[in-house]
Design brief:
The protein has about 230 residues and is an alpha/beta fold. The chain has one domain: TIM Barrel, CATH 3.20.20. The chain has ten helices and eight strands. An eight-stranded parallel β-barrel has the order 1-2-3-4-5-6-7-8, surrounded by six helices. The protein starts with a helix and ends with a helix.
Length: about 230
Amino acid sequence: MTHKKTIRNTYASTRHQQMAEHLHLYLVTDRTLCGVSRGTTKQNFQQLLDTVSQAIDGGVTIVQLRDKVADDDELYAQACALKEAINGRVPLLMNDHVQIAKKAGLDGAHIGQTDLNVSEARQILGNEAWLGLSVNSSQQMQEMVAKHARYLDYIGVGPVFATNTKPNHAPPFGIDGVRPLITQSSLPSVAIGGIDASTAQAIRDTGVDGIAVVSAICASDNPKAMANQLA
């Protein structure tokens, strides 16, 4: 029993280290900023593919496809096209829609507090896929540690600052609120919410494994150069 537990702990430690490296510069897509139109043809989201590909060339280390407007067919088409464009260079995760992530063969998913239960998401994705959870408060962090940590690979903490890319987000807690949250868990962490080049280093200094950005890259005229600056 002790030997099996040691093997499990070693596996978890290695997996967490790999995840921490992936989190260094995390890109979350925005359909409006990336010029995504309704439909399922590649032409409808070519600008998304171009933005993500350029951002990866500039230093993005993981990508999350987030689209709150697309129906399942559109989202699946985007996921498949994005997976092909990324071609394994970095992990590709799906926001919320765990079943589509599984169907499209993506590397994992990221879920929020009001989405699918963490254990259910893990069951759908399988043990090899990456799974992250948004945490917005100390209370949510405590609940995550007590109930869900064994199913997760990382946590997303935020919003650090107010942001227009996610309506009705939780109250921002600022840079000073990051460290008190992440020190409650041993899971790798990424900070998100209104982060740009002017605040990136200060947030990294809190001890997070990475920063997640949306508009800083998706709204940039030069996604590659901006990603390089952030990385």
